[in-house]
From TrEMBL:
SMART domains in the record: BMC (SM00877)
Pfam families named in the record: BMC
Protein name per the record: BMC domain protein
Originating organism: [Ruminococcus] torques
Major subcellular site: other
InterPro entries, A to Z: BMC_dom, BMC_shell, CcmK-like_sf
Residue ranges of domain Bacterial microcompartment in the record: 5-79
Organism lineage: Bacteria, Bacillati, Bacillota, Clostridia, Lachnospirales
GO cellular component, one term: bacterial microcompartment
Amino acid sequence: MKKYGAYGLVEVKGESNAVIVVDRMLKTAEVEYVTQDTKCGGHALVFVGGSVSAVTAAVDEVKNNAPCKIEHTAVISNPSQEMVDIVEMFKNR
């Protein structure tokens, strides 16, 4: 389990849109793809990790220059152990 300074979360509709969003974020900043979770209704929640500044830049890029409709975004800096556990749970599904 790797410790990140921040997690970036982006929710979109559709798996193909999730791939496009991840690609854009990885090309924008020094972030790593962590995991993805699909919710009911075809919503995909993508997690990336990295430094606070890199994650913020990556999330801001897809929010401000959206390659598709973005439902929600968030940057969680200095994630608590409970947040890390939640992300690990998503990874292990």
